[in-house]
Design a protein that fits this description.
With 303 residues, the chain is of the alpha/beta class. It has helices spanning 16-42, 66-76, 82-98, 103-117, 122-137, 143-154, 167-176, 206-218, 236-241, 252-261, 272-277, 283-302, and strands at 52-55, 158-166, 181-185, 187-190, 193-198, 227-230, 244-248, 264-266. The strands form 2 sheets. It has a 6-stranded parallel β-sheet with strand order 3-2-1-6-7-8, sandwiched between helices. Strands 4-5 form a two-stranded antiparallel ribbon. It starts with 15 loop residues before the first helix and ends with a helix.
Length: 303
């Protein structure tokens, strides 16, 4: 047992220097906590009409991707077949597993959605969007992010969603959450009917920053007093525009950038894997896959 003596901590009396070091460390920790609390208490500033907040949607305000949830709702209403549903489910599973937005995957999802809605009326999709929100999206809103948005509203500030999702979906979500409005990807329509094309390009990456800049100019906002929230490194251009950038449920690249820039971070996910790669929950993949299998089985049974 003597050989293991080095494993046992030796009791040594505290010296004056060690006591001083301990007290100094405790005081520094107390001051740091107080300073953080004071900074948080000062923001958002009540009554600052030239300040506003801009929130990314997917994995920031809502768990998962709005476009994929919308696709599930359209399948339920027989807008497309089981093969398309399987593709939507795989894209959603990949999105959950990776925890980041991949431009190629997102573009494929948008192309699928555009082909599905082509020929349908805008008013029809807006009405269906309300139903789909209740069915698939309402329960996936992150309470923590919702509270942040409400803090800005309570301070008398305007709050917008800024997302690559179709603007019709974004507007439904913004309205249901009591937000000011939404910026989103605009699908072309003629006489109220979708053509299957986009107006310009998806509102993604730098395009989001340009949309926020244009809106701030039109609304006479001071971007230095505004806040922006996102989970993705793709939104660094938007986050860099404002004086109060927040990394919410950040992917690894955004987390690293936020720490370098001393941006504030918030993470509302749970589990070790979520902290590492940004999965809302590993079980989410199984839920999507299981839902797809059930839908396919039901489809075959009906046939």
């Amino acid at each position: 047992m003597a050989a293991l003596g080095w494993l046992t901590p030796r009791r040594r009396p505290a010296t004056a220097r060690s006591v001083l070091a301990g007290e100094a460390s405790a005081e520094a920790a107390r001051k740091s906590t107080q300073e953080i609390s004071e900074r948080e208490a000062e923001f958002p500033v009540v009554g600052d009409e030239r300040a506003a907040a801009f929130f990314d949607l997917d994995n920031t305000v809502m768990q998962g991707a709005a476009l994929f949830h919308f696709g599930r709702g359209l399948y339920k209403r027989k807008f497309f077949d089981t093969r398309e549903l399987a593709r939507f489910a795989w894209q959603q599973a990949w999105f959950r597993l990776a925890g980041v937005e991949d431009p190629e995957h997102m573009q494929e999802a948008r192309d699928s959605a555009l082909s599905i809605v082509q020929g349908h009326r805008v008013s029809e999709l807006q009405s269906i969007g309300e139903e789909i929100y209740d069915e698939y999206m309402a329960e996936r809103i992150w309470p923590g992010t919702r509270a942040l948005a409400q803090a800005h509203l309570d301070a008398g500030q305007r709050v917008w969603l800024v997302t690559a999702a179709p603007v019709e979906i974004a507007q439904v979500i913004a309205r249901r959450l009591g937000l000011t409005g939404a910026l989103g990807t605009v699908a072309e329509s003629v006489d109220g009917v979708y053509t299957g094309k986009l107006v310009g390009e998806p509102l993604h990456g730098p395009a989001k920053a340009e949309a926020v800049r244009a809106l701030a100019l039109a609304e006479e906002l001071d971007l230095r007093r505004c806040a922006a929230y996102s989970d993705s490194h793709n939104d660094i251009p938007m986050l860099s525009l404002v004086g109060h950038p927040y990394a919410i449920n950040p992917d690894s690249k955004l987390r690293k950038h936020a720490r370098t820039m001393d941006w504030r971070l918030r993470d509302y996910r749970t589990g070790r894997k979520a902290a590492k790669v940004g999965i809302p929950a590993a079980a989410g993949v199984g839920a999507v896959a299981g839902g797809t299998a059930a839908a396919i089985a039901l489809h075959r049974k009906r046939r």
